[in-house]
Design brief:
The structure is a single chain. The protein has six helices and no strands. The chain is mainly alpha-helical. The protein has a domain of 59 residues. Helix 5 runs antiparallel to helix 6.
Length: 182
């Protein structure tokens, strides 16, 4: 007795199952990724893991690879921008022209970052880390009581940042505006 055809047709290639009938496609009314998720991936069948275990391995690895690609691409393009500036400066010097300034946007960003690094920044970071530590303490305590101590790590770092901000605030003078020209 022949098995009834699959509701979505035979998607496996002929080389995987030589006895499979020709591919037949029927109209699929479900969303395509949900349809494909109903079939085990090729590697999951080979390695003997379920589709859930396969996804639990592949998704984090794909995320890490994507983050690495983004980081390496950013470094590469930053390097290329610097390389092109050096080439422009070399040509300008050879022709006796003044050297063009380095990227003004980059210098402005560095100055803005240095100005933002104040005691308020440490105070805000400390408060956020204490809140994250308390949240982890409560959440992990509900899941596994011994795992709640992981929340103490960001909590104590937050306490250290708060103490640093309070101790340096006394020694730090607020920046004074230069006198106005008349």
């Amino acid at each position: 007795m022949r098995k009834p055809p699959a509701p979505f047709g035979n998607f496996y290639p002929k080389f995987l199952n030589p006895n499979a009938p020709r591919r037949t496609f029927t109209r699929v009314t479900t969303f395509l990724p949900m349809h494909l998720a109903s079939f085990p991936p090729l590697f999951a069948g080979i390695f003997g893991v379920s589709i859930g275990d396969f996804a639990a391995i592949v998704i984090p690895i794909a995320g890490i690879v994507l983050a690495g690609v983004v980081a390496v691409s950013a470094m590469y393009f930053h390097h290329r921008r610097r390389e092109m500036w050096h080439e422009t400066a070399r040509i300008a010097l050879e022709k006796g022209q003044p050297v063009p300034p380095l990227d003004p946007h980059e210098e402005a960003e560095k100055a803005e970052y240095a100005k933002d690094r104040t005691a308020d920044h440490d105070l805000r970071g400390g408060m956020v880390l204490i809140a994250v530590g308390a949240g982890l303490w409560l959440m992990l305590g509900a899941i596994a009581p011994n795992a709640r101590y992981i929340g103490a790590i960001p909590g104590f770092i937050g306490i250290a940042l708060l103490l640093y901000a309070l101790l340096t605030r006394k020694n730090r003078q607020p920046p004074q505006d230069p006198p106005a020209r008349s």
